Amino acid sequence: MATALYRCAVSRDNNFNLIRFLAAALVLFSHSFPLAGKGDDEPLYALVGMSWGSLAVDVFFVTSGFLIARSFFERKSLLAFAWARLLRIYPALIVAVLFSALIVGGIFTTHGLAAYLRDPQTREYILTNSYLLSGIKFGLPGVFADNPYKDGVNGSLWTLPYEVKLYIRLALGGLLLLYLQRYFGRHFLKISFLSIALVSILLNIGNHFQGDSSEHFIRFSATFFAGTAFYLFRDHIMLSSKAFWALSLLLLLSLLQKDLFFVVYSLGLPYLIIYLAYAPSGVLKAFNGFGDYSYGIYIYAFPVQQSVAAMAPGIAPHALAALSFAITLPLAFASWHGVEKRCLKMKGGYQSFERRLRRLRLKVTAKLSRV
């Protein structure tokens, strides 16, 4: 039986937390192979030419595109949207960056601790990775220089600048298109974002056939704006179990040929993810009440894995994944309950300030009108 997406999208009762948790765990699992010096053994890459980590990151961007669009178009305020995004990303990120630089780096640097802390590279690592918009710094002086994957302290952070820039493009583009919609009709916004998504998907597929996998922004735009288009067209999309299983079967059959798989995957992934986010119910949706540990897993896993690899030379990828996950999960739990959840409660602070400012403006206007 099919369900209209718009009926589900208004509810907070969904499987997004579970999907992102599994995606973050897949990133950790996938990274365990290169971090153990066995990058060629990554299981999915040999089968379809992409890693479990790449698939998981695409899942993150599809869900972000959908949920960030909902956040922006529900608020209808650029400043309120920006405040909510800042609270979601930066406080936990800054704590994780300080954890990597001061604790992990302080323990594993081959330099003296005082020299390490004075080194400009340490300061640059903290400032650049806490800001994101100017890219990411991967190395810290003398840290993990002898690991199989040398010098990279937190390689997972490389996707975050792309995500932040896509948030900015969605917000500024959304404001511009909402303005232009007055002149071009009420469907102009939706059609524009759908066009952006389709063009990005086609460009991403074209890059694949040209052997160019370096255009990360096109790839992330394809998945992110596909999620955005699903939100904007929620009134026209049906979540059908028959469509889900037919698409899943097609994806499975396409495994016989890598290029065909990439095409089916690129076109079908958004529908599969949005269906899984809303259609399955029962015990799965109970996970949503436990909290969102995916961000914490994502930003802590890599330095934990590098630390384990440094302390246990020659560790096998699966052992590295299991041990690192056992250490990372409590850090993610602490990040959610100690930082992320607390900061998210502050989102309403801007709304209260905005209401007080509006009341003050009305009072001033009323007094001036009586003068």
TrEMBL record:
Transmembrane segments: 18-37, 44-69, 89-113, 164-180, 187-205, 245-278, 315-336
Keywords: Acyltransferase, Membrane, Transferase, Transmembrane, Transmembrane helix
Pfam families (UniProt xref): Acyl_transf_3
Keyword Ribosomal protein assigned: no
Record keyword Acyltransferase present: yes
Top-level taxon in the UniProt lineage: Bacteria
GO CC, any one term: membrane
Record-given protein name: Acyltransferase
Record organism: Thiorhodococcus mannitoliphagus
